[in-house]
Amino acid sequence: MLLGATILVLLATITAASFLFGLANTFDTKSQKIESAFPDESTRPSTTVLPDGTSPINVLVVGSDSRDATPEQAESGQASNQRSDTMMLVHIPADRKKVYVVSVMRDLWVPIPGHGSAKINAALALGGVPLMVQTVEGFLDQRIDHVVFIDFDGFKGLTDAVGGVDVDVPVAFTPSWSGGSNISFAEGPMHMNGETAFWFVHERYAFADGDFQRTRNQQLYFRALFTKIVSRDILSHPLAVNTMISDFSPYLTVDSGLNSSALAGLGIELRDIRSDDQVSFTLPTNGTGWSTDGQSIVLPDPDAVSALSRAMAEGTMSRYVSDHSAAIK
After folding, report:
1. What whole-number distance in Å separates Cα of residue 104 and Cα of residue 114?
2. What pLDDT digit, counting tens, does each position of 220-250 carry?
3. Coil, helix or strand for 59?
4. Which of these ranges, 43-47, 76-80, 107-111, 161-165, has the smallest mean pLDDT?
5. pLDDT at residue 167 above 90?
6. How many helices (H) and strands (E) does the chain have?
7. What are phi and psi of 200, to 5 degrees?
8. CA-to-CA separations, 329 to 168, 215, 239, 285, 325, in angstroms, rounded
């Protein structure tokens, strides 16, 4: 889901030195850490280093339906009955002038190391976070630097912590199930609290193209959330920032390297980023199809994936977005 917002929220807020210690302590004590988030080093792509010695940063952001699995199972690499409901790659170029959020369709048919081809969201269930990272790294041939793992209660909490968000709903719908809350969405501008926004980004059965529209809704929400967070209403009020971090951190699980010190460094590097500097799109595909065992799947577009991989490695994401503007809408 929009959970790519997770990393950007924290990056954008930790900018005032006088306020840093309190935020750092809150984040480090309340968030959970994944001690073994990455696969064996021998299986991983090398870090991209540009000619000037700088490197981009790739953050894999995952929202998961918990099913019957425990977080410990998913984080440790054990197989479980847990699948990644939403997957986004947050790519921060070496020049730190923009942030690209690439949504990956949950039913994308890809090779999963040791398990043959399957839907990409099955990697979490088959081998936890390490296999999920290995699958994405192998598919995109890019190294993942950090992992952010969030449950949906955290998503609701974050939305409410910033006072809700305003989203222009593109397609009217009523969720197929909303726990008896009778929520409905009319086309046009709508202010959403955590509960309402949850159903906006979670629903897929109400749409003719299912997960494709849900992904577009997630991107609209993500932009609205990011715009709200980097607004003066939030960043200029230390109490609002502290409340947001305090309320949200307990629902957040990150790799052990993504601590307050790392976030503070990134926050400084991204201090000039604003909503117009965030570009979100869906990884281009070749539409839908069927697997040999009868599953409905999303077919990858190898040429588009290769072009994206090169753009991330060479620092040419702006050109990639321009060249593939029709495919990534």
Report:
1. 21
2. 888 888 787 766 566 556 666 677 777 777 7
3. strand
4. 76-80
5. yes
6. 12, 13
7. -65, -40
8. 16, 11, 37, 12, 6
Helices 302-314 and 122-140, axial angle in degrees (round to 10): 70
- Phi/psi at 262 (5° precision): -65, -40
d(CA 311, CA 317): 5
Tokens representing residue 282 in the block: 């869906």
Residues 77/130, Cβ–Cβ less than 8 Å: yes
The distance from CA 287 to its chain's CA centroid, rounded to whole angstroms, is 22
Distance CA 7, CA 147 (A): 9
For residue 210, give every residue at least 6 positions away whose Cβ sits within 8 Å of its Cβ, in sequence order, or none: 204
Assign 205 a pLDDT band (cuts: 50, 70, 90). Answer: confident
- Which residue type sits at 11? L
- pTM of the predicted model, to two decimals? 0.83
Helix (H, G, I), strand (E, B) or coil at 66: coil
188 residue type, one letter: G
HSE value, Cβ hemisphere, 13 Å, CA-based, for 307: 18
DSSP, collapsed to helix, strand or coil, labels residue 99 as: strand
Two tokens, residue 277: 């500097």
State how far the Cα of 226 lies from the Cα of 191, in Å rounded to an integer.
15
* pLDDT(14) > 60: no
Are the C-beta atoms of residues 280 and 101 closer than 8 Å to each other?
yes
Report helix, strand or coil for 135: helix
10 Å CB burial of residue 46 (0-12, 13-18, 19+) is exposed
Up-side HSE of residue 136: CA atoms within 13 Å toward CB? 32
